[in-house]
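**Discrete fold encoding**
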Amino acid sequence: MKIMMTGFEPFGGESMNPALEAVRRLPDRVAGAEIVKVELPTVYGRAGEVLEEAVRRELPDAVLCVGQAGGRSGILVERVAINLRDARIPDNGGRQPVDEAVREDGPAAYFSSVPVKRMVAAIREAGIPAFLSYSAGTFVCNDILYSLLHLIARERPAMKGGFIHVPYATEQTVDKPSGTPGMELGTIARALERAIGAVVEAMAEEIAEKRNK
């Protein structure tokens, strides 16, 4: 089994992105699955193009994209992607779309195809705060989740796809207002490992069930 993990480059004036750094810390195999790591640009449209190129090259069984959700206190497993670009700040290409569709030919929303509740439970079992989220926002994080699920719907229906938001890394909070939550990169990476394990386990059960029919 092959799992693709993606992380975004830093954006919004930050010198690092904990999503990318945590993905880089993952071992090459988790729960028996091969892990492929991909860096994505924090740019509307271009991130989806890079992802599609990587998927067609690697042919993974599942893709988990990871992004930064500064100000959150725990890991967020996203359930929904909406067909909307509405940026509070410019992306790294200087674009700041307002009320724009991700895909003109796409539906209003897609649901993640990974076992989101199982992932949250697995992360919590490791003593790490995690929550189910019903909004990935309208920045590039939502954009990439929507693009991924649109790709799955069009070309790779057997592939699973989802998105995980992570808090600021602890070192990012040094120059933030008092009380800004952060999480150690090692803890974030451990949470991602637990999430991957839940995905691999669910996919293995699905394969076994099909074989027994």
Q: What stands out?
A: The longest strand covers residues 33-40. The beta strands are 2-8, 29-30, 33-40, 62-68, 75-78, 80-82, 109-111, 130-133, 160-166. Residues 74 and 129 are 5 Å apart (CA to CA).
